[in-house]
Each structure stands twice: as C-alpha cells, then as structure tokens.
Amino acid sequence: MSRFTGRPHSHERASAAALAAAELLEVLWGRGQEAARSAEVSLSQLRALLVIERREGTNLRTLAEALGSRPPAVSRLCDRLEAMGLAERGPSATSRREVELRLSLRGRVLLEQYRVARSREVTATLDRMEPADVARLAAGLEAFHSASARLAADRDGAAPRDGDVADSA
Q: Is the CB of residue 52 less than 8 Å from the CB of residue 101?
C-alpha cells in the first residue's frame, strides 16, 4: 500500500504504465495526423470531428461539453469545419432553436485516412511484441475501456453505451 495515495502499489504501477502508454500514443497518433493532413485540420478540429462522428446529430452545447470548451468557441470551430466541408449543420428534429451537427462525406474520408495512418503506427509497435504480450495488452485495454465507460456513465448519470469512450482524441 502506498503511503501517498492509499492505493496498492499495483495501481500506481498500472497508472504510471497507462500514462506512459498514453503519451506514446499521443506521439504515434500525431504521426498519423500528420500523414492524414490533406485537409489541414488542427488537433481541436480533429477532436470535434471525432465527437461529432460518435454522437451523430449532436448539438453545439453537447459538443462544447464533450470538448470541455465554451459554446461560442465551439460555434466558431464548427464554422471552420463547415467552411472546410468536413461537417454540416442542419435543423434539429426535436427543437427549432437548435442545430444538429453531422459529418460530411469529406469529414468521414478524413477520419478514415487518419485512422489508417494511426493504425499503421500502432501496428508497427505491436509487431515487435510477443503474441502473448499482445493478448494481455488487448485484455487489459478492454477492461480499462469498460471501466472508463462505466465511470463516464456514472458521472453523466446514464448507462454506458457500446463504443463509448471517455475521450478518444
């Protein structure tokens, strides 16, 4: 038991390993982003596209909450995404005062290019690991993802949905 956190040492070790892996993934994903920069999107634009994809039909307020930003800044961000042809705004089916955000075909293609490039980077690393280590990593990441989805649902007061991630960008 750690005298600093009151948690078992294994939690601290796992936390340190997760943080180190997250930092490495940031580097790998950055390479993927560079490879898929055909539309010259910024990191904040990419994050917004990922949220819009996951929550198709979301409104500006919900997008702002997901990005941890203020609605006026997100509105300007969406203006840029729309001008670039990556996202579309349309009237809400439930409220005439709100707009819904959706990815355009060009936005979907950009995200696919990004994922392909990012996947290449991650796969190159996994190829250098022993198969048993890859299997353990996959099982651990699935458990981590599930716990993260449950935590997010607890915070939101909702049941976790398949595919939910705390912050995938």
A: yes
| pTM, 2 dp | 0.70
For 33-53, what is each residue's pLDDT tens digit? 666 555 578 888 988 999 999
Rounded Cα gap, residues 14 and 8, in angstroms: 10
| Contact partners, residue 163, CB within 8 Å, separation at least 6 | 54
Q: Is residue 81 exposed (0-12), middle (13-18) or buried (19+ Cβ within 10 Å)?
A: buried
Q: Phi and psi (nearest 5°) for 120?
A: -60, -45
Determine if residue 30 is left, alpha or beta; phi over 0 gives left, psi from -120 to 50 gives alpha, anything else beta: alpha
Q: Which tokens sit at 15?
A: 């936390």
